[in-house]
Fold each of these.
Amino acid sequence: MAHYFQFITSSQITSIIIQPPEEDAWQQFMLPVDNYTFKSRSRAHWETQIVTPNTWSRVLSLTPNKWKQYWKILSNAKQQHPYRLEELHRVQLGHRRHYPPPPTDGVCHLCLTSIDSTDYHDHLYLHCSISKVVWQKLHISLPQEWITIIANYNLNTTQLLLLNRYSHIIHQLYSLRRLAYKEGNVLDPLTLPLIKNWVSYLSSSL
């Protein structure tokens, strides 16, 4: 990468002026600990402002207290395993990348069976035969239900990591199949050996 910096001299680097933060911004985001130390106010903000995704709260009757307990265990697990629980976090928040629109032809791109578009996400994550195989291949010894995946504060760190891996594999596998279909390719059925290979390959990227 040295060639990227071959026209920058050391004197030019040292002449770069670092603009200190504005006083108002500093007071807003930094909390004084003593005369020399500050810490971020974000944790204090998180403790008082609980994120409660509306749809999941309504569908699964989740209270703010349940979300608070879940965010606590997820935060602790993320501190132990940085960047390895982002997919599961997005699923909790209802991120659209994990909830794709139903296929226009009414056929699941994974299992190639006809589906009801109104229950598509239930099918994709819970009932699809391919998703069930992925769940089994990951050895998730929990019921394949939303109450297992969403805001389940009884999970341990290993179970959170497995559910993150499951969310990642389903998202990636579906996205690849959906792209192939949109490009005019005929989707072949996914065989057990092929699913096993995909699970192994996609798991290695986490």
Amino acid sequence: MSDTFPKVAIITEPSSGIGRSTSVALSKVGWRVALFSRREEELKSAAEECPNPTLIITGDVTSETDVKRLFEKTIKTFRQLDLLFNLPFYLLRILEIDTLTLEHWDSFISIPIEELPLESFQAVLNVNVVGCTMTKLAKYVVDGAMQADGVVCPEPIMDIEHMVDTVVHITGLPSTVQVLEIDMMATKLPFVGRR
């Protein structure tokens, strides 16, 4: 991360849950944030909770044109980019493993950035939340999630604040420290993956 302030972050899917909580938390510690999602009303609502300058950009994270516009508008508005926080939660609608294709998985873990000005930002932080945090999207996990052996059973969850506090801590580290990836999961969740 850069040691200068204010820093600028792009956060995808910040309308609710992890994205919203992270947007608000980063803004509260001095970050300027660009919020990117398809739902404009939810973006406006999230932006109202951010005390520092906030940019709202509507678009689809799977669209190369929309993502390119996101980067261009963010850099034009804030003149820099320090962090990409990518949360494409649209994949969570696919709950049955039988319907998950390689194309779905690829779109979940990647954002089309091949032609973007990557030299203009300081870091991309990959946060893997294995299992679930207590958000609206967690209901299916609390009620029961399909396991590798075909059994549906409840899974442990963790408080969203633990994940958000971790991101805020990491983004506050000096430029002499680099964190590329974090894997977080609730206690008692089978180590990496379902039971």
Amino acid sequence: MMISGRCAACKNQRRRCPSDCIFSPHFPANDPQRFASVHKIYGGSNVGKMLQQIPPYLREQTANSLYFEAQCRIQDPVYGCVGIISKLYEEIRNTETELAQIQTQITCHKLQVVQANNNAETNMNLLSTVGAETNFQMPAPSTNPTEFQWPNQVPWFH
């Protein structure tokens, strides 16, 4: 039994709160709106029947779920919880689509890097071939690909 004498359900229904009240652990007197919401959607008698049919260890979760669903139904009388669930699924789908687009972009960038490296190797091989045919001295490859160094002895540069 609650300290104030009656739980929110018994106060709402204007009755005495028995010591074994099924509502008192889940609908305390200091939160009357909690039971009022559940009562408005499901009816007090139906809530009592539901709680009695459920094992005691699940009653708290059941009361919380009934309250949440009642709040959703009050806020959105047409869709209730289903509206929230639909919005969350839509958000998941949008996020998965965005993830797939980003993964595609990453793959494209990786392919561009690989293609650029292959083109650079092909150009170096081509220049080596031309250099061998014309007795042209190739510059030593540097560790930094953006850094260019002129060879010390280039016949046409002097």
Amino acid sequence: MPSSRRAMSRPTSLTCTPERGRIDRDRKPSTELEFKMPHPTDVHVGRRVREARVAKGMSQTDLGDKLGVSFQQVQKYEKGTNRIGASRLLQTATALNVPVEYFFDGVNDGGQDDSPVNAKLSRKAIATATKLHQIPDEAMRREIIRLIDVASEVRLAS
């Protein structure tokens, strides 16, 4: 005979209530402080993982395969929803061929500067920068950058 205990079990949502100092299994979170928000450092590291992955032309599935996780887990890392542990971060750095420090570059800036340097780069912008960097002729690269500079100034002037 099947156990009736399983059929009668309650949902297992746990909420820590500061006023009681213990876990209340049935109480729904009532204040914004009780919801977990990603830490800004986790968001920054995730953004840097995404930038490095896209610059390498790697999909989330490809990176997930190298790390032994699903592409959904890679998405959570990139959004900062799930933290990346130290060993996984080292594994990620190896898979993307970047130093671990790369993920923390600019973390102390606070992200409050709205300059284009600190803007979140689109997939196309990262891919374009990567292709530009791959042009072997330095003079040609400089001319392309000059063309982009002139085009952006013309657009700003109009």
